[in-house]
Structure to design on (280 residues):
């Protein structure tokens, strides 16, 4: 059975990721594992409120047990397993290693975005995690509430091959949720040959999504600078439920147009960001 891994630092953003992660697991019939990486920091969980015992008691095990009780009714996969794991060390390395060990299908993580609030470890490690993750990562924050499904997915495509490698994974998610795909070609330059190339790639991807995956697709092209904000505005205008992006694992620094793009998108998006790792 698939497994959804949900890293928890007990912040409000991480707790919101619990609802997203469990909902995704319910849809794809996956096990759920929540995990915490001990870093030596001392803090109270977001659900503590005015409960002094949680603020005094720094036993992470009891906090995780409380989370499992709170969210147990939301997890409805027949025969599925809902458990937790505690590790110590570097946050990014431990989460990535756990995902590899579990052969996780998806990591769902809460991020503080560009707010600058980093009293927990997820806020400062979200991009590092997606850049090193062995599997796709869904990044959400506490302002993004689960609405019962993923009806519309915005899929940016540039003129690189790496940009298209995320498509089969995105198609799988779209099939699971019966989503409509908004395929958006991106180009910063006004050169016509780049426009033709982006348009060609858009058509190739559209054929795959329509003919192979049997999905509904609507195409658009965005041109100019500040493409991250244009994508976010596009997602807002079309009431999308998710924006996808890839992070390409390559030793060639000149192939990584989407690395700063992904980082900016994670920090600024008002929609959940689904990050797919790709390789040469």
């Amino acid at each position: 059975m698939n497994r959804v891994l949900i890293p928890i630092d007990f912040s409000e953003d991480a707790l919101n990721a619990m609802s997203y992660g469990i909902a995704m697991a319910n849809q794809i019939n996956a096990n759920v594992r929540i995990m915490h990486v001990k870093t030596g920091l001392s803090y109270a969980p977001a659900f503590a409120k005015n409960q002094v015992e949680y603020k005094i008691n720094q036993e992470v095990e009891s906090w995780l047990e409380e989370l499992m009780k709170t969210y147990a009714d939301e997890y409805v996969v027949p025969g599925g397993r809902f458990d937790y794991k505690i590790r110590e060390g570097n946050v990014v390395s431990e989460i990535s290693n756990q995902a590899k060990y579990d052969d996780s299908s998806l990591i769902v993580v809460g991020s503080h975005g560009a707010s600058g609030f980093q009293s927990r470890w997820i806020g400062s490690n979200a991009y590092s995690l997606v850049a090193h993750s062995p599997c796709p990562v869904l990044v959400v924050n506490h302002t993004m509430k689960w609405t019962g499904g993923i009806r519309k997915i915005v899929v940016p495509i540039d003129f690189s091959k790496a940009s298209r490698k995320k498509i089969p994974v995105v198609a799988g998610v779209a099939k699971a949720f019966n989503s409509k795909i908004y395929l958006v070609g991106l180009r910063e330059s006004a050169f016509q040959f780049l426009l033709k190339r982006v348009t060609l790639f858009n058509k190739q991807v559209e054929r795959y999504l329509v003919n192979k995956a049997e999905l509904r697709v609507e195409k658009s092209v965005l041109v100019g600078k500040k493409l991250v904000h244009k994508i976010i505005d596009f997602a807002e205008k079309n009431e999308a439920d998710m924006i996808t992006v890839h992070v390409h694992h390559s030793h060639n620094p000149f192939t990584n147009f989407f690395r700063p793009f992904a980082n900016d998108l994670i920090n600024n998006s008002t929609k959940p960001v689904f990050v797919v790792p790709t390789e040469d």
About this structure: The two ends are 28 Å apart (CA to CA). The chain has ten helices and ten strands. Residues 114-119, 254-258 have pLDDT under 50 and may be disordered. Residues 192-212 form the longest helix (21 residues).
